[in-house]
Backbone:
């Protein structure tokens, strides 16, 4: 192999590495975003499960999130997530929305 062949190979390797980097960065950002969505969904499901547990045991859905925290062991990372708990009636499940506070910064 002569010097020209080596130069071509080196340029080709650098081009492949650059392409791989350009592809992997957006994919990792997408995966991180999906991970956040999974956390939000998990928190929402946990709140709904605890509310249903309260309904089964007590015959009514709780009127606020604090009741679930005090009586059903619910814990939420309030620094990173905002949970909006909106009750409708004692016999109807609440509306639960989870907002990632880190995305609003």
Residues:
């Amino acid at each position: 192999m002569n010097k020209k062949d080596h130069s071509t190979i080196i340029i080709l390797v650098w081009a492949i590495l650059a392409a791989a980097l350009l592809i992997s960065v957006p994919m990792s950002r997408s995966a991180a975003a999906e991970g956040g969505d999974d956390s939000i969904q998990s928190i929402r499901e946990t709140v709904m499960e605890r509310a249903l547990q309260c309904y089964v045991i007590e015959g009514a859905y709780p009127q606020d999130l604090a009741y679930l925290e005090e009586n059903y062991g619910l814990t939420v990372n309030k620094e990173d997530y905002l949970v909006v708990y909106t009750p409708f009636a004692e016999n109807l499940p609440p509306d639960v929305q989870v907002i990632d506070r880190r995305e609003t910064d």
DSSP finds two helices and two strands in the chain. Residues 85 and 96 are 5 Å apart (CA to CA). The beta strands are 81-86, 95-100.
